[in-house]
Amino acid sequence: MEDLRRRSAEIRNQIVSQGWRTVVILGLAALTIVLSLALGIQYLLKEDVECPICQPALGDYDAPFVEVDENRQEKLGLGITYFILTLCFCVLGSYFLAKNSFTTLPDCIIYVFAGIIVGTGLRLTGRADTAGSALPNQQEFFLFIIPPIIFEAGYSMNKKSFFEEAIPIFLFAVVGTIITALVFGGGIFLVGFFGVGHYFRFYEALTFGSLISAVDPVATIAIFNAMKVNKTLHYLVFGESVLNDAVAIVLYRSFSEMIGPDKPGWYLPVLTFLYIFIGSTVVGITTSCTAAFVLKSTELRKNPTLELSFYLLVAFLPYFICEGLKMSGIMGILIGAMTLGHYGMPNLSETGQLSSNQLFKSIAYCGEAFVFIYLGLALTSFNHSWNVITVLISILLVLISRATNIYPLSFVINRYRRGEKISQKTQFIMWFSGLRGAIAFALSLNFPGGNEETRRVVISSTLAIILFTIIVLGGGTLSILQLLRVEGATAINLSTAASRVDVDRFEEMDIADANDSYIPNITAKNSWIRRLDAAILKPLLTRDAVESMENFAEHEEEGAEGEEDEEVPF
């Protein structure tokens, strides 16, 4: 015990004294990896890169004159007003429904119908173009709506429970998403090839499969939170949904590169996938660790306004860095949020911790509500190309591809899992809870390729799939849970607003989680992760380094006896 504490103190003192060198070395190593992958892909694409020094200086250009369209500004203002008023009514509606104990219907379904009602009213009054002018395009959707939702999911995640199921979550989120995309894409291609429904070219079909593989179980997570289902089911579904969006976007970008007359080699999507996946992870970790180090090294906590302002800015920085480097902003901000929540939050003042948590949750809630209202409005505002056969086949393939993901991977996991198995009930709920939502629809809005009819079919089919999964699967989850008598399913409160974590629960759970002194002992094999976290990263990046080392030493002493017989529990 004393030897361990002495060794830990020596390591801590060495790191604290040379912390800046460690940060510089890690930063240079990460930058080297990312630039190497970027240059490799650029070389394979054989793109000419013009020297920025040879270009005219910024001062050589006149300031552009932008002609202001007053009618468009008026329509945009009215359109945004309709959205804000609808959001206000939805927030108040959720409050009154929760207050009167009407919480048996997920909020997202109510928001979708609110969007449909508003969109229908605007269309009947001839103002559909006004609402349409305020609808964000794909770039605006990913820049302003999606990042807060993804960030809050990663930031408020219970790190202990997540890491306990890390290996199954990774398999379902990465391998499972690839399986889903390939099965759906291959199925929709073969069906069209034989003359049934709309015909998709091969890589168009795979791109369609990639975007539709993005699982967004917002309603199901609200149900699980409310009913307190068993921890294994909750975090398998939650963890998969959080990581799945980023993987789906990476696949989408990789396959979309193959659409067009000039197809690169088969190896380019693989390199692109690795570049985006690894690069986004490195950017997210590096940015958040740097922010945590700055918070530790300064006295920003003495000024809550400046502290929260800095924290809010660096929270979303990984997203824009990744987008600027042609990586996945979703992946970057997700990893960054998890890292910032683990290392950055302990450096905040108590006011900063509470304020930032509630701010992130409020922004994410408004974003989620906006997304579902947007889906309802899109149903009545867009000129759709409804191919009924393609829609029905797509819904069937969504269910089939989800099954080919969940059941085989669950079998493999149970084959080598020494602890609690993934039961048949849990597997069925995981299959049933594969809802589609914001990510899939946003990707469909800018479907690549020159065929406008194909793009409209993809948008309409994606919207139909989303509405089917949200209303039918999301609305039916409660009945399925009760029918199967899932362990732990007690209370019934399906309101997203009512089930969101409040300040008191945050104070009890999230702050404690953020100040955990070690990553839980998942397996004996990855104990080096705990050692790295407790002996190096925590002392370097957080203020409570001494307490962290003492807690880690105590944990090592308590777990020393059982570590020899420890098996891999996944």
Automatic annotation (TrEMBL):
Subcellular compartments: Golgi apparatus membrane
One Gene Ontology biological process: sodium ion import across plasma membrane
Membrane topology term: Multi-pass membrane protein
Transmembrane segments: 20-45, 76-97, 109-126, 141-157, 169-194, 206-226, 233-252, 272-293, 327-343, 363-382, 388-407, 428-445, 457-481
Region entry Disordered, spans: 550-570
Chief place where the protein resides: Golgi
Keywords, in A-Z order: Antiport, Golgi apparatus, Ion transport, Membrane, Sodium, Sodium transport, Transmembrane, Transmembrane helix, Transport
Family indicated by similarity: Belongs to the monovalent cation:proton antiporter 1 (CPA1) transporter (TC 2.A.36) family.
Protein's name according to its UniProt entry: Sodium/hydrogen exchanger
Source organism of this protein record: Rhodosorus marinus
Organism lineage string: Eukaryota, Rhodophyta, Stylonematophyceae, Stylonematales, Stylonemataceae
